[in-house]
UniProtKB/TrEMBL annotation:
The UniProt record lists the keyword Signal: yes
Domain (3-keto-alpha-glucoside-1,2-lyase/3-keto-2-hydroxy-glucal hydratase) ranges: 33-235
Keywords: Signal
InterPro entries: AL/BT2_dom
Gene3D superfamilies assigned to the protein according to its UniProt record, in alphabetical order: Exo-inulinase, domain 1 (2.60.120.560)
Residues annotated as signal peptide: 1-21
Top-level lineage group: Bacteria
Example GO molecular function: hydrolase activity
Record protein name field: DUF1080 domain-containing protein
Pfam families associated with the record: 3keto-disac_hyd
Amino acid sequence: MKNIVPVLALSLITLSTSAQKVNTLTAQEKKAGWKLLFDGTDKAGWHTYLKKEATASWQVVDGALTTDEAAKKNGAEGGDLVTNDEYENYDLQLEWKISEGGNSGIIFSVHEDPKFGATYLTGPEMQVLDDAKHPDGKITKHNSGDLYDMKKSVSNAAKPVGEWNKARILKKDGHLTFWLNGTKTIETTMGSDEWKELLANSKFKNWKGFGEYAKGHIALQDHGDQVWYRDIKIRVL
């Protein structure tokens, strides 16, 4: 009986410490150069593509950035959310959760220019999807963790709808490595012979500007379905 209280106290401390890890950085992460791109409270550091600020279609709810479909129905303008800053070489980590039948994506190397009307016209994408119920789930190279429409994941590592997935994109001198829930899903190099072949066999083969920018914004895609993102952090390399 004497050990019950200490064990209970230790359990509560463990749970509290675990909760604090979302949208925060440890002392070790700060020392290593990690930076939060989202602190769980507001949309600072982000704006809607080709807009000065983040539109009302993106809201912060329970410590996550989420698309507000009800707000859209009431006239709020949609659009992909992009970082204010541009990045070239980095380690990006975040968590995402998708709605039933939902579709979204993490788009990077996005060039922001009015001549490109959308983030995906220049930026490659790590797919975010309900693989089981969205039609794209039946299309090769369109599943969660894939390099969208270019390269299929070596393993389907996505968790079921309603659960948080941990995504990581490592980009160094054009070399890309994707992880989903700790499983390496993609490895390739932008501009390489393999990349050119992947591009030639994709829907982007004739898209001038696609994948051509080494430095660019990071985007969270508004594909018309509810999605949640949190614990977004980056370490510039």
